Amino acid sequence: MSWPAQVSFTRLEEITGGAHVVTDAAEIAAREVCGVRPAVIVRPADAVQIAEILRFAAVEKLAVIPTGGCTKLSIGLPPARYDIALDVSRMNRVLAYDPHDLTLGVEPGVRIEDLLRTLEEKKQFLPLAVPFLDRATIGGIVAANSSSPLRHAYGAVRDFCLGMEFVTGEGAQAKSGGRVVKNVTGYDLHKLLIGSLGTLAVITRVNFRTFPMPQAQGSFIASFPSAEAAFDFCRAISHSVLTPQVVEVANPGTAALLFSGEISARIEPRTWTVIVSAAGQPAVVDRHERELGHLAGATDAEEFFPLEEAEADSALAQIREFPRLMMERVPASAIFRISAVRGAMAALQGKLRVLASQRELDFVSLARSSGILYAAFLPQRDFSETPRSLRGIIAEVFQACGQSEIPASAMLEWCPAEMKTSSEAVWGPPRTDFKLMRGVKHSFDPQNVLAPGRFAGGR
Amino acid sequence: MRPQLIRELEALLGPKAVLSAPEDLMLYEYDGSVELGSPRCVVFPSSTKDVAGIVGLANRYETPIVGRGAGTGLSGGAIARSGGIVIAFSRMNRILEVDAANLRAVVQPGVVNLDLSRAVEHLGLYFAPDPSSQKSCTIGGNVSENSGGPHTLAYGVTANHVTGLELVLPDGEIVRIGGKSVETSGYDLCGLLVGSEGTLALVTEITVRLMRKPEAVKTLLAVYDTLDDTTESVVEITVRAITPAACEMLDGFTLRAVEDYVHAGFPKDCAAVLLIEVEGLTEAVESQAAEITEVCRQHRAREVRAARNDQERNLLWRGRKEAFGAMGRISPMYYVQDGVIPRTRLPETLRRIEEISRKYDLQIGNIFHAGDGNLHPLILFDERDREQFARVVAAGGEIMRHCVEVGGALTGEHGIGMEKNELMPLIFTPDDLALMERVRAAFNPAGRLNPGKVLPMGKACGEIRVPPMPASATIPT
User: Fold this and answer.
1) A388 and A339, same structural domain?
2) A429 inside 8 A of chain B by CB
3) Whole-number pLDDT of residue A4
4) Do A172 and B187 touch (CB under 8 A)?
5) Do residues B249 and B273 lie in contact, with contact meaning Cβ atoms separated by under 8 Å?
């Protein structure tokens, strides 16, 4: 907090009305970013107010971080400055939903769970099975590019987001893309906002294409004696004509964390577990069950069994919430989000496991067949204190990713704030494209009003 | 011309890699659009290093640079509007790597789109973006324009299939963004670069996704006696949330021209046909095909038939993909548009295009990606008739304005280029455009890379540019 004494909150109150300028200590604490707290929270009603707030901030040299459900504020570097938490939770309307056209436009403060319920009434959905489902808002999901197990079948936000409206760091209201499902009119600036952690602009509207809900769904568990066998199964699926929606590989530690009840009773504690979901017409699901069973048998599965509906829902929810479960249960952990090709997954995890054991840390991982690996390192015993070895392993993980036969891209999505001592600690070694990213940041936010210092290659 | 620049380019690339004689340059004055522009020279690099060297020279001589693939673009993207050096990528046409296990290929920008699919066919793989020009267009051009094609309805456009790029920046620096993995931490620069129409950087290497061929494919032809029944069928297919792999429409006028040329088996006495393809697991394909057939019949399709074998299927697709070429048999020139509309607005939009056709006394054919609302009205004209051409431009503008009015966009896959850049204010505010200009300047500060494209130059806001008269009756195909 660096609020200058001579600047009063009066201007903010004029913009949003006094009721929407908040200094309550608990509310302020909830918007802490890596140990840095804002002086004030302001809750704008619309893009016009956001633009005024940002222009005011630029003039007064104040720093602003957009917030919604406050579930992913810990991602990224500690901000260099942070004065105003710009809370978009009042902007929570569905602005346009045309189920016949399968398109949707929403404000950033819409909670994903509410939105999915609205879509469900029309037998549609967005493929965003993201962590913090009960609290996360669309703006935050987009700004953090939250990972979803459904990416394998439906792509990520960049693939089904049609366009956005936003307010730049200069307080200019702008947009890119549009509301139609195919569009190459102008630069796709909105793609830059996906995963930008609020460093470029405040998102005020997101347009999506929606998807029809499948008629039927089936989920299956296969367990394997080794990582190699589990990934052989995944490879066999990918080489087959099957079209599963979800394929996730949990290492033994993860399986113990995620699964309970009958699933954990049926899988051996030291095994690698693959959960697969298929969806579509009932005949399609039946065929997946048959052929996945054959493939599991051919790749030395110890178990292969279908899940009851309730069991499947609970297992998929656990998988969806994996990063959240980890950071909540073991705050003194380091959770990497690594993007790696399928063929590198088994070997990379082997390397990471060795690194963990050298430093007497536990290693738990969840690999998504879309090419995202969650790799978490945690203390073997005392969860309350951050072990020194956790700090030491960070550079080694980045190095292992860079030296993988096919390089993987990593970022440290969660770790105790005190470990975030440099850009390298969170975003990895400097890259040549950081220069371009700094250029992008400067174009959107020349005075560095938005989340200064939080981003890779940014300022 | 500065002969010194030519000499230096020849020294860098060898004399056979530089064209500067007027008769040689004529071949590079045009692309697939109705635009024209003369470069000062055309160069043929063989490597990324060559490209960086050319960029260095261009900077020293303060000369514009325009990248060019096969020149099949439809919005003037590859035309040297302000002269300068055209970098033709036809010698950088190697497939550098096929990584079948990870479903990736690494290619040079001059690789022809269909050549990549052919090269991986034996592995059961293909490259999904399939523009109609795929037999000749290059992947570098696809990246610049973010090209689509019929099957993008289900599989997305080029941007959805590119994971990494090697760039030569306008200052000559070589930078890699992305890679084989699905994402790279930081801003999604690949997402910005794909579709930036060669105005931000030159692309010298591309990492693309490959897709596995589906188990089953079924191609349906639905034949209609009225346009309204045809468009209403498309709306109903969308409303029922059936996602075919492709859903293409050809109106009667267009399909008669195609049929005389390709003999694809389109009935010549109908008002329109839909060409619909479903792909996937056999079980899914059968039930989707049955549902689509039911929708078409409910909307009075007089016939719905499935291609019985690959030969029939290929013939139907040849009819679709060579339709633009077929127009050359009946008209000296055509002007193709690329507006997009919300899919539910298709019936009224086609009626509006009919009205515009009557109002301006022009023949307009419609052959387009109906499933995603991406129109391609083909306005036929004779370039020797200047007065008629003025009507073509006016009619085109009116169609585009309609697309914008119903909530659509100016271009679905052909790009803005120099054809529609002055129309950008129909969609974007001055603030939107100022931000795009700043982002362009962050990459391309001197504006030397493909000048005069995408963003308006401010001379004739809200107008389609009236291009110069083509010198000869060139029929792009």
Assistant:
1) yes
2) no
3) 74
4) no
5) yes
